[in-house]
Amino acid sequence: MIPFPQSRPVRRLLAAGAACAVAVALAGCGTSISVTTKGQAEGPVLAVGVSEDAPGMGWVHNATYQGFEVTVAEYVGKVLGYSEKQIEYTSVTPATLPGLVADGTVELAVAAYPVTDATSENVTFAGPYLSVQDDLLVRNDSGDQVASLDDMDGRTACAVDGSVSGDLLRAEVPGVTIETESTYAKCVSALLTGMADAVVAGAPIVYGLAEQAGADYAKVLEKPFGVENYGIAVKKGRTELADQVDTALKSMIDDGSWQAAVDEMTAFTGYVPDSKLDPPQVSAGDATATADASSGD
């Protein structure tokens, strides 16, 4: 069993792929978007919020941020005109993400944050970059006690603060009790110590947690339910930036880079995206169109 990584500020300096070619659609290898500069040693810095304890999606391992969402962030950053050394990562959770985006601590957040009416009140979204169902992580010794979603009736599931996973599970099993923790690591600890009967999250996160915990300790229930559309969050009202991110995501899907990143995630976690949901449909200009429709323009 691999221990959960500790929280620490790090910058990931890994390959981002050949995304600069995509920038033709954005008037060259750069962007008209003004991004907060946090230091001049490597030029302007793009601050990106990602998860730190969702193996395969976004996590800190060997002192670097890794995972599918980090690869997505690198590709988008490249299209926006930022080198690998100019992308600085900050750990976020569903609960902290809105505030960190709003106050400018991060310019973009790629951290399994679903596009919903409620979340859209606080941020502007680009994407989605991945559409998933939810699933449950259960103890490997649970036997027939938790063999289906209905078996969670009268039992306790742990969800991460700020996520919608608990609500999605409650919609399927009204009798379930949802307890929350600040991180996935704490939810897994609650599961393994018997304080919870399951961890509920997006399926790729659940598969990553199962891989990290080890087959002797936990497994995926493999009873998917609900749907979450993960979007890239930017500060509310920054529709131009969101539209440029949409352009990058569309190009990532079209040129095969998105599938290559998914394949890497699958190789690590075993999670295979549902072909009925992914790759997601992304259209450049969606954020501006949505904002105009909301304002009545």
From TrEMBL:
Keywords for this protein: Signal
Annotated segments matching region Disordered: 274-297
Ligase as UniProt keyword: no
UniProt superkingdom: Bacteria
Low complexity: bias regions: 283-297
SUPFAM superfamilies, alphabetized: Periplasmic binding protein-like II (SSF53850)
Record keyword Signal present: yes
UniProt xrefs under Gene3D superfamilies: Periplasmic binding protein-like II
Residues of the signal peptide: 1-27
Residues covered by the Solute-binding protein family 3/N-terminal domain: 45-269
Pfam family, one: SBP_bac_3
Protein's name in the database: Transporter substrate-binding domain-containing protein
